[in-house]
Structures are given as structure tokens and as C-alpha cells.
Amino acid sequence: MDPVTAVGLAGVILQFVELGAKVTKRVKDFSSAVDGTPKAFKQIRTELPLIVDGLRRIQRNIDTGSIDKETQEVLLPVVIGCLSETEHLDTLLEKALPLGGDSSWDRRIKALRSLAYDKKIEEIAESLDRYTKSLVFHQVIDNFNSTRLEQQPPPPYTDPFWLVPFDRNSSFVGRDDIFADIDRAFTVQEGSQPKAALCGLGGIGKSQVALEYCYRRRNKGDRCSIFWVNAATVARFEESFNRIASECGITSPDSAKSDAALLLKNWLETQHVGPWIIVVDNVDDKDAFFRGKMATGKAPSECIPHCQNGSLLFTTRSRDIAVDVANPEIPITIHELGKAEGLNLIRKRLRGDYSEDLVFALLQELEYIPLAITQAVAFMVKRQRTIQQYLQQYRKSDATKAKFLNYEFSDHARPENTLESVAKTWKLSFESIRNSNRRAADLLCLINFFQHQGIPAILLQDEDEAEDDFDFQEAAALLKAFSFIDENDSVFSTHRLVQLATRWWLEEEVPEDVDRWAFEALKSIASQFPEPSSRPEPEYFKLGEILLPHAELILQYQFKATNENSELMKAKLLASSGRYIHWSGNYDEARIRFERSFEIRYKHLGEKHVDTMTSMGLLGWTLSIFDKDLLALPILKRLVENRREVLGEDDPRTIDSLSDLATAIALTEDYAESETMQREALARSERILGLRNNDTLNCMAHLAEVLDEQGKAQEAAKLLREVYEIKKDLLGHLHPDVLVVEHNLAFMLSEDNEKTEEAFSLYESNLRNKREVLGPDHSETFVTAYNLIIKLAMSDRVIEARELCEQCLAEASDGPHKSNPRSQEWLTKIDGIRQRLMDVDNDEQAPVAGHQDSDMLRN
């Protein structure tokens, strides 16, 4: 066989187009360089571009499948002839054309010489003219046939195609809002193609929604053809297109499949009669869909048909991909099921007369994620378990929960009847994220060790490496695109199930990294948690409230290999979170944390390290002030000795320890020794820090308490009033530290009959302010309320006292501190007074004065 013939019509056309363009340029150059060019040259200059253009049109028709093989065989000799004559012409021109560097004499000689070739060129021109006429005739006939086809009425309409490989899901529930969104997206201006993209977390039900939409559209009776394409990989996409092309009669079962995708695309764009919908399912791999190559050499995205009577419905886990494929439409994000939808799904899938409360308990554990619900139901059905039994086993531990998430089952509308699990479904997304953005994968691992909600950005950004904010935002955006996290005003959240699956994935892939990421989380929280403070600002409480849930969780983590770094970081967090918890009113838990912090630091750092002494001081202070425990005495004595040795007598921390020791000594009723020590602490603090320093003012307040215990009421009240006025001036009347002093001053004045009205005024102000700042159910608020109730009852104002009791009990029922032991302790006291006041008339003396416990009331 002739080698030219062997390459086929398309190859010959390509050779001719390249050569024809080159020869056309040479002829043009010759004509412009020499006057009086031969007539044949002028003819060739006109006809050769026409041949090139005509063959290009033929090539386009070949590409779209518009020219059959028989026609190609007929055209091949014509094109070969054109190529042969043009090659001959190229050889002649090589000899006849003057070069750019030739002199004017040489140019004339070559021009005269060219006349000798004029006869040969005329013969070539005549041959090309014949070929041109043949090609023009072919083009005219082709155009005529096309016009005739366009003018003919369309063939009788056949039944629409239904190529959806899954049966309808009989357990499908709800999602009416999503179907409405799809219909809105498919309502476009004339000339535009309807498109919609469903995105959301793996297992959230995107494919199930698309499948149900197909069946609903089919039932509308608008004769719409519906096709389903699996786009998970290039191979599956191509397989889907080949199957559709074969089923629609575009290709025969035994024909080559390499061009099936393009043939199907062209058929849907130009020949399919009536509306059609293609569901392009599982477009989760961006590289595969937009850059992967099929047998045609085209990417899957390039084979998607585009026309106004065809609608495209994509499903993808990535919102970024959804934006790309649905443009200009906004992606439709699918969220968790609603309560009613979740209840209906359980009722459809699981037999048994279960109460709504029990079903909702199950749904809450599974976070209303359809795949997780279906997985749980499959387990219960196979293992013949009730919901109660499932929950009891599921809740045993996080490790047990991870095993349940790995339980494999056959889900509806999964390709090739593969077994699925929640963990396996999300693992694909985890690996995709790791391959495309390592920082995003690291971020997901870190988030795993925080509470799943209310995660501030400061916990996630790497301060040590001064991370570029753009890199962090890109990493977070990728996780949001896969619906693994949400963000609201720089506060992130995730699903608890995502955390469990991430932990499982991490332990499977890189088990040694579990402790590493736990330590990173611990370090992040410990560095961000506000330092212990004796005069906290509003920001302290705001930040502490945000970080405490995350601190609680990471403090429970048991490192597989404990080391000094993780232990000391834990001790730091125990101390700072313990101080915050103290301010929240949970003194018992605060003491436990201070004790653990001290033990860890003592073990690794020794008794005289400044950090150890900090924890030691917090423990001793708590024992003496709140627990009235004499164990504080040896601890604080040792602390004073160590700080004097390490820091010096006049260091503020040494002075603070001395004041705390004096308070502890007062517990032994050695008030004289306590007073002497408090005066020494006050003198040193005033000399080093000044009178208006908070530490100095605290020394003054402690001295006032010791004086009051000794019956020096006037001196004590005068000193405490000075502290109150200065602190109020420095910090404002609503500062928690000011509220403590305000209460103690009211209590001190209430013992003086001449100061009763002022005491009432301070109590009422203090109660009002504590309710505003600390909350109505805070233990410190109850301390003030209790004292005020006692004072009202002793002042023959029983009705007011009883009403205040009832108000406190009512306000505590739903407050955030209702489980706080100290709050409960004070509520019990208040309820006891209320019961004793029930039968007391306003005219009688209330027999409750003996219940006043001044030791418990001092802050």
C-alpha cells in the first residue's frame, strides 16, 4: 500500500494544509518581488487557498462524524492528487523564486528563468483547478443535503431514553427544598444551558437526591431523556459515555469506542430531539475530570454536551468543583437531614415501635447524616439489635464509635454493589485533601483534638512559624469546600463523626502522629488560654469561656508515650484553666487542677522553679481562702521560704505569698500573728508597687479582714472602704474584683447597727451588679443574695426575704452554673431559709439569724 494512502484521509489533509500554506506564501512572495509574473502563478495564488479552506472544512466534518467511511474513500484520491501536484509546484518554486539577499540583477535572471517553467506550472495549475472543481462539487452536494435535511420535518418522535442504572430508593425522604432549588437552577434564559451542581459532605445524600430527581422528572411526562454518568474516574466516565452511545444507537456494540464520547456529545447537541438531562455523578477528582485523558485525547469535561435543550446535574463533594461545573449558577449545598426527615428515614428503614425521644437520641449521635443513619440501621437489622442496644454499645468509647463507622454495608445506588462505610467514604476525601494541600490535611488532624464546635482561629494558626494568612485561609477553604468544617466569623466547627473518622484514618495511616497532633493541640490551647489573674478584664472571661471546652477535652487525652514536654504543657493549662474556673465559681475543681499542676511541675522542675512555685501558690491560696483548710499552712510557709530564696524578699510574688500565709494563719485563730504578717506584706507592697497597685490593695483587704476578726470594726471598715473606692476608680464598678470587695464591705457594715442603711444599699447594688456581670446563678451572686436575705429577715422584712429566695431558686433552674457544686451549696442554704420563712408573718422576728456563716461569705 502507498504510504500516503496508509495514513488515511485525515492524515493526507493535514499534510496538504501544512504544505499548501507554505506554497501559498511562496507564490505570494514571488508575485510581490517580480513584475509580470506568469499567468499560471496568479491562478495558483487564487485557487490554492480555496483548496486549503475546503479541506479544512472536510476535516472538521470528519471530526464530528458527519462524513462516513465510503465518502472518505472517494475523497482520498482527490486529496492525494492535490498533495502530489502541490509538492511538484513546491520543487519548481524552490528553483525559480529569488532569495531575499539576491541582487536586483539576480532577481531579474531568476524571473526570466521562471518563464522556462511556465508550461509545467500551467499543467500544475490545470490539475489543481480540476481538483478544486471536484471538491467544490462535493461541498455543494453536501450543503444541499444538509439544507434538505433541515427543511424536512423531524422524524416521528421515539420514546425518550431512560439510562439510569439504579432503581428508585423506596426509603428516600424529604429534601423538597433541594428539588425546588434544582428546578430554579434549571429555569434559565433562552439560549442558556440549564445547569445545577449538588455539593456536600460525603454520605450526605447527593446521589440519592439526584436519583430521586430523575424519577420525579420522568414521571412528569414531558418526554425527557435522562442519562446517568459516573465521573468518579476517567475510566468510569468513558465507560458511561460508551454505554450511552451504544444504547442510543450512535455506535454499534462491536465498533471502536475511541470516538464514542465525542460522537455522543455531537449527537446530544445537534440531533437528539426533545429535552434531556445528564446526571454527572461523583465529580470528586478535579484533576481526573478537567485534565484526565480519555481514548479520544480529550478530558471528560471537554465531552460534556452543551445546548439549551439539555440540562446538566452534577454531584460532587467539593464546593470548589461545584462552582466550576455549575458556573454561572450557585452550587446547591446539601446539609444534614432535618428532625422530621431523620425520624421518617428511621421509621421507613427500621421496624419497631420506638419512641420519638429514643429515635432522636440515635439521630443526634449520628448527627442526622444519611449514610451514618443507613449504616446504623443496616447493623441493627443484621445483628438484630434494638436502638437501645445499639446506643449502649456505640457510646462505650470513641474507639467503639470508630468501629461502627467502619462497619461495611451495601448502600442503595452505589456503583457495582460495592460495600460502603462512613469511614471509607470520608477516607477518599481525606486522601484527596492530603494530596492537594498538605496544610489542609494537617489542619484537619489538629481540629480532631478540639471540641467539634466553637473552635477559634487562634487555636489553628501556627504562631511559631508565623504562618502566612493566605496559606491558612486556603487550607481552611479546602476543608470547607469538602464540608468537613464550617466557619462563622473566624470560629470553626466540624462534625463529631468527622473527628472520629479522622482519628481512625490517622491511626491507620500514621499511628505515631496521633500523639504529635494531640501535643500540638495541647500546646495551642495552653499558649492561648489567658494567664492566671487576680484582676481579670472582660476579655479574660470572654476568651476563657471560648477556650475552656477545648481545654477540658485535651486534658482528658492520654498520651501513649508520656514525656516531659507534654506533662509540663498540661501543667501550664491546668493552672491557667483552674484560675478561670475559680472565677466561674467552681472552687473545688479549681483546687484539684492547682494540685495536679503542682505535682507535675514538682516532679519535672523541682520545688524551687518559678513555675512550680506559681502552682504551689495557687494551691495554697485556694486551700486557705475557700476551703478553710489548715493544709494550706505548711504549703504557704514553704512557698514563702522558697520565694525569698529564689526571688528575694521584695519580689511582688514573695509579698503575695506572705499575705496568703497571713490569711492561712488566721485560720488557726492566731490573729495577732496574722495581723503582723499582713502589715509587713502591705508595707513591702506599698513601698515596691505603690498604694494604687492591685496587689497592694489586696494586702489591705486581707488586713481589714484580720482586723474585723479581732473586733476592730471601725479600723477594718475604714481600710476596706479605701480599698473599695480605689479599686472602683481603677477598674470600674462592674469589675469582678470590685464586686468582691463591695460585698465584703457590705457584710462588714451590716454588723454595725448604725450602718444598716448603707449596708442594705451596698448589698442591693452588689446583687444587681453580680447578676449583670457574673450571672444570676453564679455562686458569688448567691453569696450576696444569701446575706441580703438574712439581713432582710432580721430587719422584719420577711416577705421581701421570701420573695428574694424564690427569685434565686427560679433563676437558677436553667442557668449555666446550675451544676456547679458551690452554686448548689448556696441554693440549698437559700431554700432552707425559704422553708423557714414560709410560716413567718411580716410582723414577727424571723428565726434565721443563727444561719449566717461569716467565714463562708468572705471572698
TrEMBL record:
Domain NB-ARC: from-to ranges: 196-348
Pfam family, one: TPR_10
Gene3D superfamilies given in the database record: P-loop containing nucleotide triphosphate hydrolases, Tetratricopeptide repeat domain
GO molecular-function terms, A-Z: ADP binding
NACHT-NTPase and P-loop NTPases N-terminal domain segment(s): 13-135
Region described as Disordered: spans on this chain: 840-859
Signal peptide positions (record): none
Protein name: Short-chain dehydrogenase
Taxonomic source organism: Trichoderma arundinaceum
